[in-house]
Amino acid sequence: MLDSINSPTDLKRLSHKELIPLCEEIRLKIIDVMTRNGGHLASNLGTVELSVALHYVFNSPDDAIIFDVGHQCYTHKLLTGRRDSFDTIRLKGGLSGFTRRTESEHDYADAGHSSTSISQASGFALARKLKGDDNHVVAIIGDGSLTGGVAYEGLNFISHLKLPVLIILNDNDMSISKNVGGISRHIGSLAASRFYQKLTDLYYYIIRKYRGPVKWAFWLAKKIEIGIKALFGYENIFSNLGYHYIGPIDGHNIEHLIDILGKIKKNVKRPILLHVKTKKGKGFLNAEGNPAAFHGVTPYLMVSGKIEIKEEKTFTEVFAEKSVEMGKKYSDIVAITAAMESGTGLSQFNLEMPDRFFDAGIAEQHAVTLAGSLAYGGLRPILALYSTFAMRAIDQLIQDVCIGGAPVILALDRAGVVGSDGETHQGQFDISILTMLPGMTVMVPCDATELKLMFEYAYQMERPASIRYPKDYALQSQCNNYHPDLATHPVTHLKKGQDLVILVIGPHLNKAASVIEKLENEHYKPGLVCIRIIKPFPRTDLLDIISSYTHVLVIEENVYSGSATQMVATLVSSMQKPVPVRGINLPDTFIEHDSRGSLLSRFGFDEDGIERECRTLLETRTDTIDVSGS
Ligand SMILES: Cc1ncc(C[n+]2csc(CCOP(=O)(O)OP(=O)(O)O)c2C)c(N)n1
Q1: How far is CA 430 from CA 148, 372, 376, 606, in A?
Q2: CB 3.0–4.6 Å: which of 64, 403, 424, 435 could bond 535 by disulfide?
Q3: Which residue has its alpha carbon closest to ligand 1 atom 15?
Q4: pLDDT tens per residue, range 120-157
Q5: Which of 174, 362, 364, 392 best tests ligand 1's pocket when mutated (most atoms within 8 Å of CB)?
Q6: Strand ranges, E, within 225-328
Q7: Beta-carbon count within 10 A of 201 CB
């Protein structure tokens, strides 16, 4: 049946009965493709019926259907003309794993970071209102994403203008891990009652019929609604904010979903919140049993049911061990995550020291401010965030951490390119942004030993510190086991030479060393430097080193603008002799999904790329200065 659906119009030709096997077909398709490509399995399996019902009732793309985060949009993609390309999802040049405006007119939002769908919906609803259009606007947001503050900013605004937006709360009681917090408890406590639904239906009927001329009827009905809600305990955060709250209803009962959505569609004149209960991972037993592990899957997990364990350790795993070690060694250490316990490697810390582990929810801003206050309160927080999600909380880093010098240790995972999650998830800006903040120390480990040293140093420093590392394997040492004290050696001169010097920031040291060997065979005398601390900028150390070379190459997985490469170029331009500088940096574009390895090669971070840059540089005359990044 799925083969016959090329657009939502085709879907509408099916009978209600036919939708049930269609949903099963969609599930099988998703499971099949995830087994090959990996992706957000459990969230998508949980929203099959909801997405089918939405497209059955509403008229996308005239009506806007906006998915929060967008990680649960696979059924939406399958129904909106992307069935044939669905096999390419998350692969280079293929469909994005999230909604993308450039990909389809059915994708209203560029999604990936959570809690934005309500604000996005408010914008579309307001634009329609101002232009006199009357198409519907629907936002689908999970209970996890409802822990993010920006969701409430949107709820507040919609309520303020009484915009006709339908918000669907997809409540599966899960974020990636178990959802946290008072809001989550509150949502869980909301119960359904047909009686209450009937009474509220009657109330809205009265309002519609008698609004205007019979003003007292409206007033009376309002009083009755409040009375009924108070009497039966149906007051809740949404109804109190002025939303017509409906639910909770079974999000896997397609008949019921279509019935309710159809009724709502006819009556959306004010903000409505439809509360839908779903099961994360629905229809795939492994995922139903362990939705957290099957939130995002790899082909290996799909086939074996197990998480792949490799001999080499990732930076995340090294951090995981170090955080536990520090927690045991220092009783004032506390660990914080913003809904990414397992992704950031804090699960073991939580297991061993649950009293000192805190999940702030999908609330990076709160997490940073919380960490700042915990630090002022005498504790030593390690706050583990993904680089890209930390971008949300820069203002909090400024005001609540850096101005007062709160000794927060920021562990920034997924720094640099991340691969198949694409544009919204690349960690390409953090060096530029963190090095702007007065008082922040910015460290970049190239290997496991350095990472451990940096966390220890950050603890001893008692000032704001950040340590950024990529989604990659961490070798034990890339520095021939030369790991001197960080306080006195922000930079290590690993190999001395005379002509070209390669300054490496992060994990690309060994590749640079191989290129250097090659060049040495051609009688060049290149040198190799590891920059361990970018801020405070090691000006004197670098000047000392660079003064004995003729050309400089910097390798740094960050955009050029605001990068350490740029700082090196500025430094070199102040020298007496002209020294050409080039950088291998990330490009000034949003980087689409592809594997990390392939992206690194594309941007010149592989051996070939480094060699190419070295040769270009060595051909550059030393009476001109080139300070361009790649
Ligand atoms: C700002 C931000 N922080 C963290 C994440 C990582 N993340 C992706 S999905 C997700 C959980 C979302 O939970 P929910 O909205 O309930 O959807 P579900 O997966 O349960 O369907 C998280 C934390 C993100 N996308 N954006």
Answers
A1: 21, 19, 24, 22
A2: 435
A3: 142
A4: 999 999 999 999 999 999 999 999 999 999 999 999 99
A5: 362
A6: 244-250, 272-277
A7: 14
